[in-house]
Amino acid sequence: QVAADWLGGQLSGIxxxxxxxxxxxxxxxxxxxxxxxxxxxxxxxxxxxxxxxARGLTEIQxxxxxxxxxxxxxxxxxxxxxxxxxxxxxxxxGRVVAFGGRALGDQRAKYLNSPESPIFHKGNLLYNxxxxxxxxxxxxxxxxxxxxxxxxxxxxxxxxxxVAPLGTALxxxxxxxxxxxxxxxxxxxxxxxxxxxxxxxxxxxxxxIVKPGYSLRFVILPDGEDPDSLIRTKGSEAFSxxxxxxxxxxxxxxxxxLLARNPDTPEKWAGLRKDIRxxxxxxxxxxxxx
Length: 290
Hints:
Layout: H1 2-12, H2 17-25, H3 30-35, E1 39-41, H4 47-54, H5 59-64, E2 68-69, E3 78-79, E4 84-90, E5 96-103, E6 111-113, H6 129-139, E7 143-144, H7 148-156, E8 162-163, H8 172-179, E9 186-187, H9 193-206, E10 217-218, H10 227-234, H11 236-244, E11 247-248, H12 249-261, H13 266-281, H14 286-289
GO biological process, one term: DNA replication, synthesis of primer
Domain Toprim: 140-222
Protein name: Toprim domain-containing protein
């Protein structure tokens, strides 16, 4: 929390001018920036380290929290996040346990997350779950998108029931957390080849844990679009319309198997039937399988 407060102060200070201009260009308001507690990590090797040490934290604490990196070959530790827009990641109780950082320069990795730690297990948490929990229950609707900015853009337009995995494929633990809120969460990945692959992986991973009354639906975005770009160009109503047209898990799998086989011969139709039988066998719940 101490780090989150300091990073937030950096965003509003002189060092954060470039980051603020980036957020302005993305259309985020001051209220949204405050709601998501966004911050900025300065482009300096150890400014965060020196500041937090001066505030009473130890180097060991900062290393365990993933805020510092210790070189393998020895030498002084340094800040993990530098010249990055910072997204605080909270646990189910709203406590900051990690950070995500978007590069604002020419860093090799566009996005960088805190490493696993005693208090941060990325496969178990969802970004923005604390804010989205009650709206999801009230509206009986919960949407999963790929990235932090997608979540924030949708929230700003009034779609406050949105979460995201933390830079990884959606895990079984995260799906179970979604089902605690709504029976059919809607997954909305980017409208490119990578997004389609992510949707299919999530669908296949869900098969072992689906149960009566609980499944997934999938929002199909136009080619090349992501939730943030779609909302900025066509508005939240256009996105809500796509949410209402979300396809069931079974439909997504059928389309994927059909596309993969392109059954224009008896042999390919036989192969498709085998694919479907094999897919059904992956379903863990026998009543759903039947």
